[in-house]
Amino acid sequence: MIDTNVCKDCKTKDCISKTYHYKFTARSCTSELYPAKISDNRSCILCGQCHKSCTKDNIAIQKQRFATDLFTDIKLSWAEIAFFMIVSSFVVYEIFVEWSVSKKIIMAIPGWINHSLNVSGCLTGTINAISLFVILPLIFYMIFVIIKKVIAKESLKRSFTQIVLAILPVTASMHLLKSVLKTTSRIPYWDFAFSDPKGVKTALLLTNNPELLNTDILAIISPYIGIIAILLSIGGIVLSIIIIRKQQFENRTSKIITVIAVFVYAGIFLITLTVWRMF
């Protein structure tokens, strides 16, 4: 926004007028966001249509520093908090299933629940999802939130928000690691991708002759992937600590509890990745 007074004096409000919702270009915001009141990037998808629709040429798309919004006093909605809790637990699952040992560990609780409830068939997947992405993350976050509320006197919602935002960089870095693991694990298949784009013949060939798949490259790059994994973990922790330093807490105790939550969450990855890649 260049001049908020121009927005106040604007009579047509082309950027939010429902009349222009379905124009091919220069349409108003279909998310009903009023540019003059947008304070961060959580809701805006940067389609740029409001910029085109403004007849006063008063909307500007400006660059900002990396993760700037995370360093401000963001007030998350309960929906945003719940969404991130699910995402943060899903990333734990993403990394753990890459190693057979950690996969057995993380699937132990859902397996026990399924066994105890005598659940079988397709329903086991539902139980697994509820256990891994709802129950376990809720327990993890509630432990630290209750401690913050009782000891540090922080409100319930603010406690959730502080921990969620602090953990976000670690989650993001581990999600990036997952993409690295997935991409590099597919390298042996690249030769077949060009000769057989559809992959049907290749799938049949490798099923019957698995020795034809040359995986030597994976052994070569494995140490480097391990280094990348540790560096991403450390990078996520560093960014989390910076965010915590910028956050506003009720007292020092509240900040310490948030730091502990980050280190516990990040430690899950660090310990797993270290043992997996080095032993």
Describe this structure as you would to a colleague.
This protein is mainly α and 279 residues long. The protein folds into two domains: 1-63, no CATH class; 69-278, no CATH class. Helix content is 64%, strand content 0%. It is built from eleven helices and no strands. The protein has helices at 4-9, 49-53, 78-96, 100-106, 108-116, 123-151, 156-185, 190-195, 200-208, 216-246, 252-278. α6 (123-151) packs across α7. The longest helix has 31 residues, at 216-246. The protein is globular and about 70 Å long. The model has no long low-confidence stretch (mean pLDDT 87).
Instruction: Give the number of domains.
Output: 2
The best one-word shape is globular
Number of helices: 11
| Rg over C-alpha atoms, rounded to the nearest angstrom | 24 Å
Structural class by sheet pairing and helices = mainly alpha
Stretches where pLDDT is under 50 for at least 5 consecutive residues are: none
In percent, how much strand structure appears in the residues? under 5%
Mean pLDDT rating: 87
Give, in order, the helices and strands. Answer: HHHHHHHHHHH
Helicity range: 55-70%
Sheet with the most strands? Answer: none
Number of strands: 0
Q: What is the straight-line distance between the termini?
A: 54 Å
Features:
279 residues; mainly alpha; 2 domains; 11 helices; globular
